[in-house]
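[Q] Does anyone have a clean structure-token version of this?
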Amino acid sequence: YSAEHGGYHPVEIALAKGVNNLYSILCITDFSFNGYPYPILERDIEFDFTHATVFTRYSGLKSMSAPNTNKLYTLWESKFIANLAKGAYNPIELRSP
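[A] Here you go.
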């Protein structure tokens, strides 16, 4: 992904390891290049499950209970899964603090 050539947005998913090695999703952040003439990589969409909020570059911060938020998440998730199946996110990095 680059500002000049486009491509698939990088995605960061924060997980928390719970009891019995079960993981929960804390936050999902989708990044894109923004700005002219020197674009920088910044968050485009963020689903923060810890605080029950959604951020979009064009709408700002909202509650997850706001109208159509579930539709936005469903659309984002379906596109992410389709792109993942196509291998668009290679390499996938796993990091722990």
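[Q] Thanks! Anything notable?
[A] The longest strand covers residues 23-34.
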